[in-house]
Amino acid sequence: MAKTLELIFETAANKAVTLTVDEPRENLTTQEIATGMQTIVDQNIFEVGGSPFALVKGARVVERNIVEYEV
Asked: Fewer CB atoms near the end CB (10 Å): N or C, the chain?
């Protein structure tokens, strides 16, 4: 089962932005995720359309199953 960690931010222009990380570590804690996200905001690591990330909005792990059929 494929897992993706989605980190959701809001830019200074009030636009929602999601960063995704494939196959995150299984034992990630809420505190580790929150600290990492806040570091991204505090260090102005990313910007979208000239607008830096301003707020941490949330995080989630998305799991998906793929079933392939031979046709």
From this structure: C
Residue 41 C-beta-side C-alpha neighbours within 13 Å: 20
Cα(15)–Cα(54) distance, integer angstroms: 10
Q: Across all residues in the chain, what is the average pLDDT?
A: 96
The strand order across the sheet containing 51-64 reads: 16-22, 2-11, 51-64, 47-48
pTM above 0.85, yes or no: yes
Proportion of the chain in helix, strand, coil states, percent, rounded to 5? 20, 45, 35
2 dihedral zone (left: phi>0; alpha: psi -120 to 50; beta): beta
